[in-house]
Design a protein that fits this description.
Elements (H helix, E strand, L loop, with lengths): L23 H19 L2 H8 L3 H7 L3 H11 L13 H16 L2 H8 L1 H4 L3 H9 L1 H19 L10 H17 L5 H19 L4
């Protein structure tokens, strides 16, 4: 990989150049790529600067340490999933969110989070970043779907934190984080047909 590194003078905190928000997305994308490639242990601030094509001062203006950099980045990813699509039915909504989750875990962000599993054993802040970042966004997305379904009269109340709700995404997460087996469309179709649809049928209100 050939990266053009731009030099940037280090300035004092009082007289330094203001932070440029336009570079945030470029830097965060570089962090995710590197995490996926080398993992937490081998990640360095110098490598992030080189991968993003910025000077080290740009990185240190945002984060003091590698730990801060990774925690902040993981906490902030996958927010696009916080606004799930409204298809007009609980079956359509659930399948749409499942597809969004699969797309996300197969992205650089998903690979980056997976690479952090070994470090999470001794870095509680990384676990918390995952819990309050991607996991919270997915739970929020599914909670909105269940609320819509309840309002339409498609399901009974109280499904948000139920075993049924947890099961909908459990097999996808298992393949992503544990087994590493393919998460292709055929697999998602099979999970939807054999697991999700029967659960939705059981969740419908009784007359």
């Amino acid at each position: 990989m050939v990266v053009v590194q731009q030099s940037e003078p280090v300035r004092s905190p009082r007289g330094g150049r203001p932070r440029d928000p336009s570079r945030d997305s470029v830097i965060r994308a570089a962090i995710l790529r590197l995490l996926a490639e080398v993992g937490y242990g081998a990640l360095t601030m110098d490598a992030v600067a080189a991968e993003a094509g910025v000077g080290k001062a740009t990185i240190y203006r945002r984060w003091r340490t590698k730990h801060d950099l990774v925690v902040d980045t993981i906490s902030d990813i996958n927010r696009v999933i916080a606004v799930p699509p409204d298809t007009g039915s609980v079956e359509g909504d659930i399948r749409a969110v499942m597809d969004l989750v699969v797309t996300t875990v197969q992205s650089p962000a998903g690979a980056a989070v997976r690479s952090l599993l070994p470090a999470m054993q001794y870095q509680p802040a990384l676990v918390e970043a995952f819990r309050t970042g991607p996991l919270a966004m997915w739970r929020s997305a599914f909670a909105e779907v269940w609320a819509r379904a309840e309002a339409r009269g498609e399901v009974g109340p109280g499904l948000d934190r139920s075993v049924t709700a947890e099961t909908v995404s459990a097999l996808i997460v298992q393949r992503w984080l544990l087994t590493g087996e393919p998460l292709d469309e055929a697999y998602v179709d099979a999970v939807f047909a054999s697991v999700v649809l029967p659960l939705l049928d059981r969740a419908r209100p009784t007359a």
